[in-house]
Design brief:
about 700 residues; alpha+beta; Helix Hairpins; D-amino Acid Aminotransferase, Chain A, domain 1; OB fold (Dihydrolipoamide Acetyltransferase, E2P); seven-stranded antiparallel beta sheet; five-stranded mixed beta sheet; 23 helices; 21 strands
Length: about 700
């Protein structure tokens, strides 16, 4: 079992013990990360240990040791591969975790370089550092960084990476006698997801993240296994360059004098060089680069954990030199962590509006992905089993951007005693009814239609913006009304009076009047909004609109044969079966009948193109294909697609030659944007989406 971290004591006599403990922890986790490719903790937790030790060493220099891991690079290489001595040491980079720390580095730099010194900003790829040796222009050897002085010979495995040239492109002229190219071996997100799909199909353990997958794939004893793992490479530096009898890489025949020119030379030589870089004239522009990619890191098809800033002038790099572990002319700006460790206190189950039982993790609160997380999804029973997470142990939690937090897996400690596995409950935590896993499905459901948990979710969904849009009817209010026995189903809403809320906390006279008015207004929503609100499984906004337009009335939808429903464009057999099954329930039909008796509209207004009579909307996008990418203000993805469909258009998942326009919101998919540019598809800023819906005309840029 590996060592475990403790809490730092404020007592002076505890400082030496804590420093010794930190050194042991850092060395242990360094070894697991660099040599074994099996880290137990995320990078952010490791960085926190290193920063704590550095802080203590700065405060107590008399207690610092010459062999402190804060002065080392990487870890001792494994004995699985032959050792390779780096002729030019492969150093690490110092890190900055905030704008203030980055500015402090720039301030130190300014003391030794001219004002407005040119900098090169690059992405910090989350992969494995690699050294490639070329002799007379031919690939000869590949080695890992190891401890910076000695790495591992992984030539046979690296040779399987198709992006790495076997010989230099003649475009660069006469090949140097010796060329060492440095870069990062990584696994794209698509390749990682494909690998885990194959692992799951084979019943094998899933990989935690692309970085570990890339490192583990590279260190396979059999290169044929590496060849199946779809590894990639970005070149970012020249470690050694030598024409015969000219040992100085920057003198004589060295063809360039800047870092940016070096990258351009490498690209001409046939190496893949990351295009997302920028040459800037000072700190402010460099910081802007860092902040941009901090917000857009998920637009890429590979993972990054920061940005790297380098002095562009190679002569200045030589003048600035390096410490024992890192160059002074470069720094890595680390983005806020998206993975952290915390204690998994319990696994509980929530019941959704369709009865779906979803396990979720109850965690010790942890700051990750820009917010404090105390709950995280576990998806379904199969995922809990595959991830093998157990209450009472430390787990890795991931939150990337706006994605719902999820538990990635346990912190594995070989030989450690583990709590017993969690088993999926057999009864509903809300009503006590049976939980059933349907044949051929991964999800488990509560089969009790009167389950209070389902009831709350169903009614809250009915009042949501995409359905009947009853402002003021949130989940908390619904829960209170259900628990008080005043709300059993959605039809009850339309019998509410001011007296209904008497004695209930949180319902002042004005809020009651506003809620009753909102309920009254909802009676006039078109049929497709009502269909959305009923929460039929698999039937979303686009399918509801298609059925409402095809059949016109609720009675027609309810009485339609399965074949007729499936024949509607945008519906299909799965939705059709679900609709027929829903209307086959006497309980559901009774609710619909009560809604009709309460005056809720059961028809879809007939709207001719350009005509809004009868409460419809103009068919401003009739026959047009509009693709949406990124996040739009005021619309979920489904709401945006439904708004397009409501106006006669379609919203397919991908860009093609038939696409009329691409609407680009925040954090768009890079592949869709680039394909639109390639095909000449007009791009509309997300802020102009409402104008596009209203007019059906492409807005003027500006």
């Amino acid at each position: 079992m590996g060592p475990d971290g403790g809490h730092r004591s404020g007592a002076a006599d505890a400082v030496p013990a804590r420093m010794a403990e930190l050194r042991s922890l850092i060395e242990y986790h360094n070894d697991r990360y660099h040599r074994l490719d099996d880290p137990e903790i995320p990078d952010a937790d490791f960085d926190a240990l290193v920063r704590e030790l550095r802080t203590l060493e700065a405060a107590h220099p008399e207690l610092a040791t010459a062999d402190s891991p804060t002065r080392e690079v990487g870890a001792t290489p494994s004995t699985q591969f032959a050792p390779v001595r780096h002729r030019v040491p492969m150093m690490s980079l110092d890190n900055a975790f905030s704008a203030a720390e980055l500015e402090a580095w720039a301030g130190r730099l300014a003391k030794h370089v001219p004002e407005r010194t040119t900098l090169v900003c690059e992405l910090k790829i989350d992969g494995l550092a690699m050294s490639l040796l070329y002799l007379d222009g031919v690939f000869a050897q590949a080695a890992t960084r190891g401890d910076g002085r000695t790495g591992e010979d992984v030539t046979a495995n690296v040779a399987t990476i198709g992006e790495i040239p076997g010989r230099l492109d003649p475009a660069v002229g006469t090949a140097p006698a010796v060329l060492e190219v440095r870069g990062e071996v990584y696994m794209s997100i698509a390749a990682f997801e494909d690998l885990n799909r194959r692992q799951q199909a084979a019943g094998e353990k899933l990989f935690v993240n692309p970085r570990n997958s890339a490192a583990g794939s590279l260190r396979q004893k059999d290169p044929a296994v590496t060849a199946t793992r779809a590894l990639s490479f970005w070149a970012y530096q020249v470690g050694e360059w030598r024409i015969a009898h000219e040992p100085d890489r920057h003198g004589g025949s060295w063809p360039v004098t800047s870092h940016e020119a070096t990258l351009e030379w490498l690209q001409r030589a046939g190496f893949p060089v990351n295009p997302e870089r920028r040459v800037v004239g000072g700190f402010d522009e460099a910081l802007a680069f860092c902040r941009y990619w901090e917000q857009h890191r998920h637009d890429l098809g590979y993972e990054i954990d920061g940005a790297v800033i380098k002095v562009d002038d190679l002569r200045l790099q030589d003048v600035l030199g390096a410490t024992s572990r890192a160059p002074r002319w470069a720094i890595a700006y680390k983005f806020p962590p998206e993975e952290r460790t915390t204690m998994l206190r319990a696994i509980e189950v929530s019941i959704g509006r369709t009865g779906k039982a979803t396990p979720f993790a109850v965690l010790d609160p942890v700051f990750v992905g820009g917010s404090t997380v105390a709950l995280a999804t576990l998806h379904n029973a199969d995922q809990v089993q595959l991830k093998d997470v157990r209450p009472g142990e430390t787990v890795i939690v991931r939150k990337a951007g706006d994605v719902i937090p999820e538990v990635v897996g346990p912190v594995r400690r070989p030989g450690g005693r583990r709590p017993p596995p969690w088993t999926f409950p057999t009864v509903c935590p809300s009503c006590g009814g049976p939980l059933v896993r349907l044949p051929g499905e991964s999800d488990t459901f509560c089969t009790n239609l009167d389950c209070p948990g389902q009831r709350v979710q169903r009614i809250a969904h009915f009042g949501s913006r995409s359905a009947m849009d009853i402002e003021g009817l949130g989940e908390q209010r619904v829960d209170l009304l259900v628990r008080s026995g005043r709300l059993l189903d959605v039809a009850d809403l339309y019998s509410f009076t001011a007296d209904t809320f008497a004695g209930l906390e949180g319902f002042a006279a004005r809020s009651v009047a506003n809620l009753l008015a909102a309920i009254g207004e909802s009676r006039h929503r078109p049929l497709h909004r009502l269909l959305v609100g009923l929460g039929v499984r698999h039937l979303g906004e686009v399918g509801s609109l298609a059925l409402a337009r095809a059949f016109g009335t609720m009675d027609a939808v309810a009485e339609a044969e399965e074949e007729a429903l499936a024949a509607v464009d945008g519906v299909g057999p799965v939705i059709a079966t679900s609709v027929v099954t829903w209307f086959a329930s006497p309980v559901n039909r009774a609710v619909v009948a009560r809604l009709g008796s309460a005056g809720v509209s059961m028809v879809e207004p007939v709207t001719a193109p350009g005509d809004v009579a009868g409460g419809g909307v103009p068919q401003s996008l009739a026959g047009r294909s509009v693709v949406v990418t990124g996040t739009l203000d005021g619309y979920t993805r489904e709401e945006a697609e439904a708004a397009i469909a409501e106006r006669g258009g379609t919203s397919p998942a991908g860009v093609s030659g038939k696409t009329w326009a691409l609407v680009v919101g925040a954090s768009p998919g890079a592949s869709k944007v680039s394909k639109a540019a390639r095909l000449g598809v007009p791009v509309v800023d997300g802020a102009r989406f409402s104008a596009l819906l209203e007019s059906g005309e492409l807005p003027e840029p500006g």
